[in-house]
Design a protein that fits this description.
By secondary structure, the protein is mainly beta. It has 5 helices and 28 strands. Strand 13 and strand 14 form a beta hairpin.
């Protein structure tokens, strides 16, 4: 087995400093990255150009090639290393820059999150992509129904990331440009039986320099979500008097975002409530008796100023600030029994989010559950190194995989035994490459934690 480096399909392996190859695959950063150095004598081959597709692969023509990294050449620094030779230090990202070229500006009604992801891939990520380079959604799993989602000119990656966080799911684009969107019982790590056996004296030959850290500084096992608003059960009425010039009137409260909760009359004539900007814009309103509500300004706008002396009456349900509390009693009990001893084990946290949707408790429940999943338990993390021959059976390590921690009571008193741990970062370099035989051994430095949302 050998390795090769392709730029826009051209083999640049002969000009690659093999020891400079490094790829980083992470759940806690926006993109995966790769870097390497090319040294090219004048006239040997074309200089690399940012924007080129890059593929670092291991394999051969008989058994096929597998991507260690694939993406886009993002930045190049050129320097002189000899009178007739130039070095190119190349920095690459995964396919996210291609994926994010067009922004999502669309409202999606309540539906399965997977349907929204597929629509974003089809309508935005693949907009303007050449045949053969489009993104697929073959690994988008069937997902729970989510509340209405509103995306106002955000990147496809950020939109899908919001959906993933809402559900405590994961997502990534693989090196074949296929989108993965999946629950937290995803792909197991390439370990025997999916178990990391770090029992002292067990002689785990594939694992070196294992470290384990347990941290309680981020504990939040009772969450108060602020910024949530609900509709009042009663209505109030604001009255105004037209002067023949004023078109915008300011309400005493923020009106319900449900237009069915609002009635408007001008001089005794009913007006139909509409959303300002979305349903009509100043100078470009459709014809008719419409009243346009701006929720941010707490105002109502008319296309034509009501006549002088005309009675304006707006009756509406209004929004009330609410607080939602959710907690994780099992985590509180564990903290009290196994750690604190002297406390009730409860650690409270206030989460302020003024951008929460109105009167949609299902969304708030999902957010609270996601916060508790991240922070209710002590954070366990660590690292280790594996050396893997890149043979025909090579299975790459990547962020998002999981394994079961096992020490048979020899690490942290056995409190971690049986827990699911997540690979949050993988850094890959070339440990050895035999030019004569083509044999390649890769070094994987693995960072892991008991939550994929480390930090």
């Amino acid at each position: 087995m050998a390795l090769r480096l392709l730029l826009n399909g051209t083999d640049y392996t002969s000009w690659t400093e093999i020891e400079s190859l490094e790829a980083s695959d992470s759940l806690t950063t926006a993109t995966n990255t790769c870097r390497f150095r090319l040294v090219i004598r004048s006239g040997q081959v074309a200089a690399p150009i940012p924007g080129a597709e890059i593929k670092w692969q291991v394999g051969d023509a008989v058994n096929g090639w597998r991507n260690v990294f694939a993406g886009v050449l993002a930045r190049i620094t050129e320097s002189i290393v000899a009178p007739d030779s130039l070095a190119y230090d190349c920095e690459c990202t995964d396919y996210l820059p291609w994926f994010n070229r067009h922004l999502v500006a669309e409202d999606y009604p309540s539906q399965g999150a997977d349907d929204i992801v597929r629509a974003i891939v089809t309508n935005y990520a693949n907009q303007g992509m050449a045949p053969g380079y489009t993104f697929s959604a073959n690994h988008v799993e069937t997902a729970p129904v989510v509340p209405t989602q509103q995306f106002a000119y955000v990147s496809p990656g950020d939109a899908i990331g919001q959906l993933a966080q809402l559900l405590s799911w994961l997502w990534y684009i693989d090196y074949d440009r296929d989108v993965h969107f999946f629950g937290l019982e995803g792909e197991p790590a390439p370990l025997p039986g999916g178990v990391l056996d770090c029992t002292l004296g067990a002689g785990n030959l594939a694992i070196g320099d294992l470290t384990v850290t347990s941290d309680m500084t981020q504990l939040k096992n009772r969450v108060f979500v602020m910024g949530y608003k609900v509709r009042s059960t009663v209505t109030i009425t604001d009255t105004f008097t037209g002067d023949g010039q004023t078109t915008t009137f300011y309400l005493s409260e923020e009106p319900s975002h449900n237009l069915g909760d609002i009635t408007v009359t001008v001089g005794g004539v009913a007006y139909v409530p509409k959303r300002d900007i979305a349903d009509g814009q100043p100078g470009n309103d459709p014809a008719g008796n419409f009243a346009y509500f701006n929720y941010g300004q707490h105002s109502v706008r008319f296309t034509t100023a009501p006549a002088n002396g005309a009675a304006i009456q707006v009756t509406y349900k209004y929004l009330i600030d609410a607080v939602l509390m959710r907690e994780e009693p099992q985590a509180q009990q564990w903290q009290r029994i196994h750690a604190d001893g002297a406390t009730d084990g409860i650690y409270e946290y206030r989460h302020d989010n003024p951008g929460l949707p109105v009167d949609d408790q299902s969304y708030i429940d999902l957010m609270a559950a996601q916060l508790l999943y991240r922070y209710a338990w002590q954070q366990k993390s660590g690292s280790f190194t594996v050396f893997v021959p890149a043979g025909s059976g090579y299975t790459p390590w990547r962020a998002g995989q999981h394994f079961t921690f096992q020490s048979h009571g020899t690490r942290f008193g056995g409190l971690l035994d049986g827990e699911t741990m997540w690979v949050v970062k993988v850094t890959t370099t070339v440990a050895s490459a035999d030019a004569a035989t083509g044999a390649v051994t890769l070094k994987h430095e693995i960072d892991w934690a008991n939550t994929p949302y480390l930090g």
